[in-house]
Design brief:
This protein is an all-alpha fold. The protein contains two helices and no strands.
């Protein structure tokens, strides 16, 4: 997920009303994951792909 720039996607689609998240469901609260948001890092994404073969 390092190759997906969620900040740009959210700002282009929702302007100031949206925020990036790892969750598909934001309600009800018991379905919201506490997984930290992955950073956008194209170099790390390329490295992961190279290591995977």
């Amino acid at each position: 997920m390092n190759s997906i720039d969620k900040n740009t996607i959210v700002s282009q689609l929702y302007c100031t009303t949206g925020k990036p998240t790892n969750n598909f469901l934001l309600a009800p609260p018991n379905y919201v994951s506490d997984t930290p948001l992955m950073e956008y890092n194209m170099e790390k994404a390329k490295e992961l792909l190279d290591n995977a073969g």
